[in-house]
Write a structure and sequence with these properties.
single chain, alpha/beta, Rossmann fold, 2 domains, 6-stranded parallel sheet, 3-stranded parallel sheet, 10 helices, globular
């Protein structure tokens, strides 16, 4: 078993982004800009935003953190996003989720201009991905592809099983894997005989938000296992995969923390550079 070191791979990609950013600055006379909107005082959200702002600084981007109280009105957020859409110094816009419950999340996200949607969540960007010609794709699935390629194992022809069908991970993950010529199966809460399907996977990707859900008896010998889950438990951060059990039979596996997480922010940086027009 080999551990896929997301931190090390992320650092390598960020160094490449840093070099590309300097090329962009020399060509355009300005830094790429990312605006992050956060509403409320969710501690986890604040940590995620701080990490994104820090990452921007490391690679040479301008970053703008726009904070609102948890009782912010939908109208106020709408006006701010429209303002950012029209700001030529802002290349990417990200709304940190979750939003306070009184806000319509889908509506707020739909306001972000397609060319500044660095999360890759808009109908336009998801549609292009479904057609196999993405401009910007969701950050976490993009990071997973980088991690898979880092193993040196070919994705082509492999049977990839994804546990989870969310718009953020499961669905875009499936489309990116199809573009790499994998055969893809998506499983979810209504899937029958789940373990029988997961045991056929050459590549198993868990993204369901249930700590230590995937056990050894659900995994094929020598499978590549990618754990997208990050669950806060009494024992600390845990993934969707029981690492201690599954690492005994997997050929490659990502840890939690230190696996997929670092790559998500790195792909956000990459998407912002793409949105800026490099």
């Amino acid at each position: 078993m080999k551990i896929i070191d997301g931190k090390a791979i992320s650092e390598k990609v960020r160094n490449e982004i840093k070099e590309q950013t300097q090329v962009y600055i020399n060509k355009h006379g300005r830094k790429p800009g990312l605006a992050v909107i956060i509403a409320g005082d969710n501690p986890a959200s604040k940590t995620y935003v701080a990490n994104k702002i820090k990452a921007c600084k490391e690679v040479g981007f301008n970053s703008y953190c726009i904070e609102f109280p948890k009782n912010v009105s939908e109208d106020t957020l709408t006006k701010k996003i429209i303002e950012l859409n029209n700001n030529e110094d802002i290349d990417g816009i990200l709304v940190q989720l979750p939003l306070p419950s009184h806000l319509n999340e889908k509506y707020i996200l739909s306001l972000i201009a397609d060319n500044k949607d660095v999360d890759g969540f808009s109908a336009y960007n998801m549609g292009l991905l479904a057609l196999g010609r993405p401009k910007i794709a969701a950050c976490t699935p993009l990071g997973v592809i980088e991690l898979l390629k880092s193993t040196g194992e070919s994705i082509e022809g492999k049977h990839a099983v994804i546990i989870g069908r969310s718009n953020i991970v499961g669905k875009p993950m499936a489309m990116l894997l199809l573009m790499e010529n994998a055969t893809v199966t998506i499983c979810h809460s209504k899937t029958k005989n789940l373990s029988e399907i997961t045991k056929t996977a050459d590549i198993l990707i868990a993204a369901i938000g249930k700590p230590c859900f995937v056990k050894k008896d659900m995994v094929k010998e020598d499978a590549i296992v990618i754990d997208v889950g990050i669950n806060r438990t009494e024992k600390g951060l845990q993934g969707d995969v029981d690492f201690n059990e599954v690492s005994e039979i997997a050929s490659y596996i990502t840890p939690v923390p230190g696996g997929v997480g670092p790559m998500t922010i790195t792909m956000l940086l990459k998407n912002t550079l793409t949105a800026a027009g490099l």
